[in-house]
Design brief:
The complex is a heterodimer of chains A (389) and B (625). By secondary structure, chain A is mostly helical. Chain A contains 16 helices and three strands. The longest helix of chain A has 34 residues. Chain A is globular. The termini of chain A are far apart. Chain B has two domains: 190 residues, Penicillin-binding protein 2a (Domain 2) (Alpha-Beta Complex); 329 residues, DD-peptidase/beta-lactamase superfamily (Beta-lactamase), CATH 3.40.710. Chain B is 40% helix and 16% strand. In chain B, helix 16 packs across helix 18, helix 16 packs antiparallel against helix 24 and helix 18 packs across helix 22.
Chain lengths: 389, 625
C-alpha cells in the first residue's frame, strides 16, 4: 500500500487534521511563544550541561503544556466564565490542603501529593485568580460600587495570604500583582491608584538612599523580622553576606556583566559552567542567557516578552465582554510581572524571591500554567466575533 | 461620595482601553528600567565584571567547623572527631562508573560493603557531589593512588573529619548518631536559616543529643578563598577565615553508673532511666538493645541498616522515651497518695484481703493465693497487695485517678531534651471518648477502673515518665524537667552557656506533697516516700544483692553512704534525709541547710526501668491501643 493510499485510509487527511488542530491557534501569539520556548530550550541546554536528562524532561513538560494550551484555546470564554468560580474555589481548597497536609521541601510547604502526582496548587492560582476576578467584575458590570472592590480585594488576599504563608514569596507577589492589575483595569479610581504608587516609589527611593544607616546591626525595623531586614539589606549591599543570600546576586551580576555586549558564546559561560551560578537552570537562568549572549541576548528576550505582552493587551482591547477583556489583560500583565520580577532579581535591582523566568526556566507546573494562559488568550482572540455582547 | 473614591465613573470600553494603554506604558517604563540596568552591567561596568568573572577562578570554599565534643558529667569523652583521608568519586565527572570502580579496586581494597554504600548514596540522587567510595585510607593506599591519579579524572582524595564514639554502644540512645545530610535535614537547616553555615557540611545529627543539639554542636563555617584552574581544581589558598568550632556538650550522665545500668539490664529488652530528683539531671539512660553509633559515621551499608531496622529486638527504638509500658505495681504509691490526698483512706485504715476482689461478677485475683489477710496502707505497699488497690481504684473512680496522676506527668511528654518523645496513655473517660470510634467502645466501664489501680489496664507510660514521677515524689512534689545536657560549653572561651529547657508539660498542677493530711502530721509525700523505701529494704533482703546495687556502692561508695537496693529493681525511692522527722513548719529552713549536708549524702538515685516481657511489639501495641 502506497503512502498516499495509507493517508487516504485515515479517517482524516493529515492536512485536514492539521487545519482542525491549528484552528483556534492565534498565529502571532504562537510565533512569539514558540520563539521564546526555542530560546529557552537553548539556554536551558547550556545551563543543564551537567545533566542532559533535564532537557528531555523539560521537552516532556512542554508536550503536556502545549496539549493543555490547545485544549484551553478550544474552550469559549462563556465556558471559561462558568469554570471560573469552581476553579477558584478548588484552587483555594487545595491551598488550604497544602497548608494542612502538604509536603515540605526546602523549608516550604508548597506541594500536595495526590498519590498519582505531586502538584503545586499555587500554580493553579496563577490562572484561577484572574479568571475569578474577571468573573466577579463581569457579574457586577455597570453597577460596580466601592464595596465590590472590597470583595475583589478579599478574593485576592485570601489565596495570596495562603501562598505567602507556605512561604512562597515570589509566587505570592506575582499572583497579587496579577489580581491588582485586574482590579485596576476594572476601574479602580485613579484617586487611589496614584497615591499608592507614589508612596511606594517614595519608599523605595528612601530605602536606597538611607540603606547604609538603617542596615546597621543595632537598628531594629519595627514590624519586620530579623531575616526580612536581612534580605532587604543584602539587596542593598550583596557584599555583606557573600556566602548566604548575597551569593546569588553577586554571582548573577558577575555573570551578566562579564557577558558584556555580545556574550561569551553558547555553552561558553564560565560562571554557569564552572558552577559559580546557583539555581542556574531555574530562577537564575536569565544570568546564563546574559552571560552567553550578552546584552544582545538580554534585549532579545526583553523584546520577546514585550511582544507577548503587547499581543495579549491587543487581544484584551478587542475582546467583546468585560470578562474576556479583564482576563486577557491580566493574563498578559501577569507575564510582565513574572519577567520583570525575575530579571529584576537576577540583575540585582529586586530582592531574591523565587520566581522563574517565564517560558525559559526549567519546571513543569510553571510551564503548564503559562501555556494554559496562552491558550486562554488564544480562545478569547478566536471567539471575539462569536460572542454576542 | 464613596463611590467615586473607589471607582472611576469612566466605565465602559473607552475607560478600559485608556487604562490598558496606561498599563502598557507602565510595562514599557519597567522594561526600559531593566534595559538600563542591563546596559549598566553589560556595557558601562563590563570591564569590572569581566575581572570579577576572571577572579571567580577564586572560589569561596566553606571550611567545615569541628563539631563539638560530647562528654559525661565527669569529662569522659563520648563523642569526638578524627580526621582521615577518603577516596571520593564525583559520578557526573566520570564516564564509565563501573569500570572506574573496577580499576580503583586494583589499586585500593574496595569491599562489597563500600560498593553498596556508594550505590546507596548514588541512588539518593547525589551524583553531582563527590561521594566517598572508601574511607580511612592508609598511608600506603594514599601513596598508591597519588601515583596513579592522572588515570582517574573525577576521583579525588579528601581529608575529612569523622565522628567517633569511643565507647561504642554505651549510652547510644542518649548520644544518638550522625548520618549524611538528608532532604529532611536540609529542610531543618533552611528553616533555621543556617544554609550558609552548612555549605560543605555533610553530616547531621539523626537522633539523641546529636540531633537535639545539632545547631549548638555544629559551629560556624569558615571560608577559604581558593584559586581554581579552568577545570575547577584548587591551585592554592589565597585567604582564609577560620571556622569556629562547635560547642561542647557536657551531659548529665555518669558513665560509671551508665555502665552498671547497662550491665544490669543485660541482654534483656527494655529501658532504664535514673534521675537526680533535685535537679532533673539524668544520671543513667539506657534503652536496650542499643546500637553502635560508629556504624553510621561514614554511611551505613544497606545490609547492616536492614538488620538493625528489621531485627525483632528493634535496637533503633529508644524505649526510654518512645516505648510505653504498663507501670504495674510502681503505680501503687501514687494510688495511695491519691487516697490520702482525696481523703479516701487513712494510713491505718485496714481492709480484708481474701486473695481476690469481686466486681460485677468478675474476680480480680491477688498475686498471693489466699490473700494477705488484714492490710493497711503500709502493708499494702510493702507486700504490694493487689486487692487493696483494686478496692481503692473502685472507691476513687477513674476521673479522680486520672486527674491526680496527671500532676505527676503521667501521660504527658516530660520535655526531656530528645526528639521523638511519646506521651503514653493516661486512661480517663475523656481519653476513651477521643480514642475509640464506636460508641460502645467510647464508654468507660467501671470494671475497667479496677485494674488501673495496680498499674495495669489501659495504663501505658514511657520509662522516662515513670522516672520523672518517682523523682517528683522524692523531691517533695517539685517537678524538674529531666534533661541529658548539663551545659553547653563554648569551645573557644570555655564559657558555659545556658541550656534552654522546656518546662514539664504537667507543671501546671505540681502536686503539693508537703502538706500533711490534717496539717499536723507528717507530709503525705514524705510518708509515701518513706514507705517505698521501707518496701525496698524489706523486700530486698530476701533476694540476691544485684549487680546494680553492688556497683552502685562502687560508684557512690566514696561518698560514704550506701543505699538499699534490691534485685530486678523496678523502681526505687528515697526521701530527703530529714524528710520523716516531722514537719514543724520549718520547710524553708530545712532546704537552706541541705547543701552543706550534700557531701555526706549520696545523690539520691531514682531509677525507673521497664522490661519488656513478651516480645518487642508489646510496648508498641500498647501505645496504640
Amino acid at each position: 500500500m502506497s503512502l498516499s493510499a495509507a493517508l487516504r485510509a485515515l479517517p482524516l487527511h493529515p492536512r485536514v487534521l492539521w487545519a482542525k488542530l491549528a484552528a483556534p491557534i492565534d498565529p502571532p501569539l504562537m510565533a512569539i511563544v514558540a520563539t521564546l520556548l526555542a530560546c529557552g530550550m537553548m539556554v536551558l541546554a547550556s545551563a543543564s550541561a551537567d545533566n542532559p536528562l533535564r532537557l528531555v524532561s523539560q521537552a516532556g513538560n512542554l508536550a503536556v503544556a502545549l496539549t493543555l494550551m490547545r485544549i484551553a484555546a478550544q474552550i469559549p470564554p462563556q465556558g471559561l466564565m462558568r469554570l471560573a468560580p469552581p476553579v477558584y474555589v478548588l484552587a483555594v481548597l487545595l491551598l488550604v490542603a497544602v497548608a494542612l497536609a502538604g509536603d515540605v521541601s526546602k523549608g516550604a510547604r508548597r506541594w500536595l501529593n495526590l498519590g498519582v502526582a505531586r502538584i503545586q496548587p499555587s500554580e493553579i492560582m496563577k490562572i484561577a485568580m484572574p479568571m475569578m476576578l474577571a468573573w466577579y467584575f463581569q457579574k457586577r458590570e455597570a453597577m460596580a460600587a466601592w464595596h465590590d472592590f472590597v470583595v475583589a480585594a478579599l478574593i485576592l488576599l485570601l489565596p495570596v495570604g495562603l501562598i505567602a504563608k507556605q512561604p512562597d514569596l515570589g509566587t505570592a507577589v506575582v499572583v497579587a500583582a496579577t489580581g491588582l492589575f485586574a482590579i485596576f483595569l476594572a476601574g479602580l479610581s485613579w484617586k487611589l491608584v496614584v497615591p499608592v504608587l507614589a508612596a511606594a516609589a517614595a519608599g523605595v527611593v528612601l530605602l536606597v538612599a538611607s540603606g547604609d544607616s538603617i542596615c546597621r546591626p543595632e537598628v531594629d525595623w519595627p514590624g519586620l523580622r530579623e531575616y526580612q531586614k536581612h534580605r532587604v539589606c543584602t539587596l542593598l549591599d550583596p557584599g555583606s553576606d557573600p556566602l548566604g543570600k548575597g551569593f546569588h546576586t553577586i554571582q548573577s551580576t558577575i555573570a551578566l556583566g562579564s557577558g558584556a555586549i555580545l556574550g561569551k558564546g553558547w555553552m561558553q559561560g564560565t560562571q554557569a559552567h564552572l558552577e559559580f551560578l546557583p539555581e542556574r537552570h531555574t530562577d537564575f537562568i536569565f544570568a546564563v542567557a546574559g552571560e552567553e549572549f550578552g546584552l544582545v541576548g538580554g534585549i532579545a528576550l526583553l523584546l520577546l516578552y514585550a511582544a507577548l505582552i503587547g499581543r495579549g493587551l491587543m487581544i484584551a482591547a478587542g475582546a467583546p465582554t468585560l470578562f474576556a477583556r479583564l482576563l486577557a489583560a491580566s493574563l498578559a500583565l501577569s507575564y510582565f510581572a513574572y519577567a520583570f520580577v525575575n530579571i529584576g532579581m537576577v540583575s540585582g535591582i529586586l530582592p531574591v524571591v523565587g520566581v522563574p523566568l517565564p517560558f525559559v526556566s526549567y519546571g513543569g507546573s510553571a510551564l503548564v500554567a503559562l501555556l494554559l494562559g496562552v491558550g486562554i488568550l488564544m480562545s478569547i482572540q478566536k471567539h471575539r466575533m462569536l460572542v454576542q455582547k | 461620595m464613596t463611590r467615586a473614591v473607589f471607582h472611576s465613573p469612566e466605565a465602559g470600553i473607552e475607560g478600559f482601553r485608556s487604562r490598558l494603554a496606561a498599563a502598557g506604558i507602565g510595562v514599557l517604563v519597567a522594561f526600559v528600567l531593566l534595559f538600563g540596568r542591563l546596559v549598566q552591567l553589560q556595557v558601562v561596568d563590563r570591564d569590572y565584571y569581566r575581572t570579577r568573572a576572571e577572579d571567580n577562578r577564586i572560589a569561596i570554599v566553606p571550611v567545615v567547623p569541628n563539631r563539638g565534643l560530647v562528654t559525661d558529667r565527669n569529662g569522659v569523652v563520648l563523642a569526638r572527631n578524627y580526621s582521615a583521608y577518603t577516596l571520593e568519586i564525583t559520578p557526573s565527572k566520570v564516564g564509565d562508573l563501573d569500570a572506574t570502580i573496577e580499576e580503583l579496586g586494583r589499586l585500593i581494597a574496595i569491599e562489597p560493603r563500600d560498593r553498596k554504600r556508594f550505590r546507596k548514596a548514588l541512588a539518593e540522587g547525589k551524583n553531582f557531589e563527590s561521594l566517598p567510595i572508601r574511607t580511612r585510607l592508609s598511608d600506603e593506599e594514599l601513596a598508591r593512588f597519588a601515583a596513579n591519579r592522572y588515570r582517574f579524572p573525577g576521583v579525588e582524595i579528601k581529608a575529612r573529619l569523622f565522628r567517633q564514639y569511643p565507647r561504642g554502644e554505651l549510652a547510644s540512645h542518649a548520644l544518638g548518631y550522625l548520618g549524611r545530610v538528608s532532604e529532611r535535614d536540609l529542610d531543618r537547616i533552611e528553616s533555621a536559616e543556617e544554609e550558609a553555615n552548612y555549605r560543605g557540611t555533610e553530616h547531621f545529627g539523626k537522633s539523641g543529643v546529636e540531633q537535639k543539639y545539632e545547631f549548638a554542636l555544629h559551629g560556624q563555617a569558615g571560608a577559604e578563598q581558593i584559586e581554581v584552574d579552568a577545570s575547577g581544581h584548587a591551585v592554592r589558598v589565597l585567604s582564609r577565615t577560620a571556622p569556629v568550632a562547635g560547642n561542647d556538650l557536657v551531659l548529665t550522665l555518669d558513665l560509671r553508673l551508665q555502665e552498671i545500668a547497662e550491665q544490669a539490664l543485660g541482654k534483656r529488652r527494655g529501658a532504664l532511666v535514673a534521675i537526680e530528683p533535685a535537679s532533673g539531671e539524668i544520671l543513667a539512660y539506657v534503652s536496650r538493645p542499643g546500637y553502635d553509633p560508629n556504624l553510621f559515621v561514614d554511611g551505613i551499608d544497606p545490609q547492616t541498616w536492614d538488620e538493625l531496622n528489621n531485627s525483632p529486638d528493634r535496637p533503633m527504638i529508644d524505649r526510654a522515651i518512645s516505648g510505653t509500658y504498663a507501670p504495674g505495681s510502681t503505680f501503687k504509691p501514687y494510688m495511695a497518695l491519691a487516697a490520702l490526698t482525696l481523703g479516701k483512706r487513712t494510713p491505718g485504715q485496714t481492709i480484708h484481703d481474701p486473695g481476690y476482689f469481686m466486681f460485677g461478677g468478675h474476680q480480680f485475683r491477688d498475686d498471693k493465693k489466699g490473700g494477705h489477710g488484714t492490710v493497711d496502707m503500709y502493708k499494702s505497699i510493702v507486700a504490694s497487695c493487689d486487692t487493696y488497690y483494686y478496692m481503692l481504684a473502685n472507691d476513687l473512680g477513674i476521673d479522680n485517678i486520672s486527674n491526680f496522676m496527671r500532676q505527676f506527668g503521667f501521660g504527658a511528654p516530660t520535655g526531656v531534651d530528645l526528639e521523638g518523645e511519646t506521651s503514653g496513655v493516661l486512661p480517663s473517660q475523656e481519653w476513651k471518648r477521643r480514642h475509640f470510634r464506636r460508641p460502645e467502645q467510647q464508654k468507660w466501664y467501671a470494671g475497667e477502673t479496677i485494674s488501673i489501680g495496680i498499674g495495669q489496664g489501659y495504663n501505658a507510660y514511657t520509662p522516662i515518665q515513670l522516672a520523672q514521677a518517682v523523682a517528683t515524689l522524692a523531691n517533695d512534689g517539685v517537678m524538674n524537667t529531666p534533661h541529658l545536657v548539663r551545659s553547653v560549653v563554648e569551645a573557644r572561651s570555655g564559657r558555659r552557656g545556658p541550656v534552654e529547657r522546656q518546662p514539664p508539660a504537667a507543671q501546671a498542677g505540681t502536686p503539693r506533697l508537703h502538706q500533711g493530711c490534717d496539717g499536723r502530721s507528717e507530709p503525705r509525700g514524705h510518708r509515701l516516700a518513706r514507705l517505698c523505701r521501707r518496701t525496698v529494704r524489706e523486700r530486698g533482703q530476701d533476694r540476691d544483692r544485684p549487680a546494680l546495687f553492688a556497683a552502685r556502692r562502687k560508684v557512690r561508695g566514696r561518698q560514704g553512704r550506701r543505699a538499699p537496693a534490691r534485685p530486678r529493681v523496678v523502681h526505687r525511692l528515697r526521701a530527703p534525709r530529714q524528710a520523716h522527722r516531722g514537719t514543724r513548719g520549718g520547710g524553708g529552713k530545712r532546704r537552706l541547710r541541705r547543701p552543706e549536708r550534700r557531701s555526706d549524702r549520696a545523690p539520691g538515685l531514682r531509677l525507673s526501668s521497664a522490661r519488656q516481657a513478651g516480645g518487642s511489639r508489646r510496648g508498641r501495641g500498647r501505645s496504640r491501643a
